[in-house]
Every structure is written in structure tokens, then in C-alpha cells.
């Protein structure tokens, strides 16, 4: 939160609501990015082989949507502002933390999801 301003004047529940909406939005971006990769691979099973084209599409679509949503939130909707300590991308003005969040977490999510689906074995419901 120190990288953002404007939350100090809000009550606790308003801050929780705003952060929850942003988190849900991040989840939606991740799902849409996954389906973008699936569209390129023409299979939702692309996560098992991680073809370059689908993986790049997944990451790029997430970055583009993140940049757009940050622009909307900071410039159009006035949902939040960056503090002076937030590093920003040149020209675009998008905060580096939202960008790093997208560049670090989704590849990790892909790896974990792939590991879980490749190594998990269905257990019998009844023994």
C-alpha cells in the first residue's frame, strides 16, 4: 500500500472492497490470458506442453490488459494513484509493481498448475 495514495481517506471496508475488486480483476485477466493461449494452441491442454506461441500470447495478453486496466484505474476512473515512490514505465506511466506482478506470478502459476496436473492421480471415491 505504500506505493499507492488516496486510500488513507477511505474507511477500512472501502479499502478492502477496492483491493478485493482489483484481486478479482487480476484473476479474470489470468483466465482470459489462459484462454488466449488456448486459442492460439487450439487446445486448452496447451499447459501440458507450454508451446512458445501460447506461452507468449498468455503473457503478452496479460501485460496488455494490465496496462490498459491500470490506465483506466488511474487516469479515467480515479480508483487510485501511484505514490511518488512507485517506479513507472516510461511513456506509458504504468506502475512497475503491477507489471512485475504479471511478469512473475503468471509464469509461476503456469508452472505450478502444470506440475499439479501432470503429477496428480485421481483417487478412487470408494475404496
Give, in order, the helices and strands: EHHHEH
Query: How many structural units, i.e. domains?
Result: 1
Our estimate of the beta-strand percent is under 5%
* Tally of helical runs: 4
Mean pLDDT: 87
Which range best describes the helical content: under 10%, 10-25%, 25-40%, 40-55%, 55-70% or over 70%? 55-70%
Backbone shape: elongated
Largest sheet: 2 strands, antiparallel
User: What order do the strands of the largest sheet run in, or round the barrel if closed?
Assistant: 1-2
Rg, rounded, reads: 18 Å
Total number of β-strand segments? Answer: 2
Model regions low in confidence, pLDDT < 50 over at least 5 residues: none
End-to-end gap: 50 Å
Amino acid at each position: 500500500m505504500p506505493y499507492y495514495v488516496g486510500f488513507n481517506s477511505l474507511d477500512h471496508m472501502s479499502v478492502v472492497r477496492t483491493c478485493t475488486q482489483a484481486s478479482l480483476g487480476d484473476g479474470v485477466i489470468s483466465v482470459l490470458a489462459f484462454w488466449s493461449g488456448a486459442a492460439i494452441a487450439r487446445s486448452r491442454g496447451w499447459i501440458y506442453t507450454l508451446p512458445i506461441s501460447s506461452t507468449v500470447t498468455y503473457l503478452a495478453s496479460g501485460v496488455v490488459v494490465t496496462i490498459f486496466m491500470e490506465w483506466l484505474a488511474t487516469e479515467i476512473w480515479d480508483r487510485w494513484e501511484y505514490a511518488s515512490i512507485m517506479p513507472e514505465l516510461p511513456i506509458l506511466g504504468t506502475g512497475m509493481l503491477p507489471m512485475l506482478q504479471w511478469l512473475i506470478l503468471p509464469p509461476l502459476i503456469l508452472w505450478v498448475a502444470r506440475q499439479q496436473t501432470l503429477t496428480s492421480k485421481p483417487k478412487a471415491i470408494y475404496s
